[in-house]
Amino acid sequence: MSVDAIMHTEFPKGYTVFFGADGKVIMTPQSEEHSSTIRSLQIDTLALGRHAKVTSDVYLDFPADENSAPDLAILREDAEKQGKRYSFEDVLLITEVVSVSSARKDYDDCTAKYGRYGIPVYLIVDPYAQEVVIHTEPTGSGYIAAHTYKYGTGKLPIELADGRIFNLDLDELPRPEPGARTR
């Protein structure tokens, strides 16, 4: 798809559109649960400071062209862009919010990938199961430790590698409306 065609295309509301370096256009619908969960996570990151380096749906450079645009990433305070992007080496925590179409990717593929690249904390937030899984202690094939916490169980302090604490408010995570599709 040419740049001119992209500029003149009206994409459907509710879809997230990604443009790959190889010219591919990827469109994925973003549910209300997905969007409001990311917004809730962003609000919780404000306690890290107004100018904390937090990205959402922004590409991060990984080796071997395995770039990712996680739903939320918390970066080291001294992180600096290498060219146009931050490096995976600057990441302290990555969060993926499960959607109907991304469950396998978030639980399996991303767990292996983020562990392989040494991301200290990988957080899976699943609005449909109403639980959060925290992966720590990365290895070459994933993570050694995984702990599951249910929505509605208070504030969950997550220690970042730089000593700061990210407090995830499990009481405030949005829940899908009754009848919403499950994973």
Q: Outline, from the CA principal axes?
A: globular
Structural class of the secondary elements? alpha+beta
Strand fraction: 25-35%
- Average per-residue pLDDT, rounded, comes to 85
Q: What quaternary form is this?
A: single chain
Largest beta-sheet details: 6 strands, mixed
**C-alpha termini separation:** 31 Å
Strand segment count = 12
Low-confidence stretches: none
Contiguous helical run count: 3
Q: Helicity level, as a percent range?
A: 10-25%
Give the strand line-up of the largest sheet.
3-5-7-8-9-10
* Rounded Rg: 16 Å
Written as H for each helix and E for each strand, in order along the chain, the element string is HEEHEEEEEHEEEEE
Structure, described:
The chain is of the alpha+beta class. The chain has helices spanning 3-7, 32-45, 103-116, and strands at 15-19, 25-29, 54-55, 60-61, 72-75, 86-87, 91-97, 121-126, 131-139, 142-150, 155-159, 165-169.
List the helices and strands and how they pair.
Blueprint (H helix, E strand, L loop, with lengths): L2 H5 L7 E5 L5 E5 L2 H14 L8 E2 L4 E2 L10 E4 L10 E2 L3 E7 L5 H14 L4 E6 L4 E9 L2 E9 L4 E5 L5 E5 L14
Parallel strand pairs: 4-6, 7-8
Antiparallel strand pairs: 1-2, 3-5, 5-7, 8-9, 9-10, 11-12
Can you give keywords for this protein?
12 strands; 183 residues; 3 helices; 6-stranded mixed beta sheet; two-stranded antiparallel sheet; alpha+beta
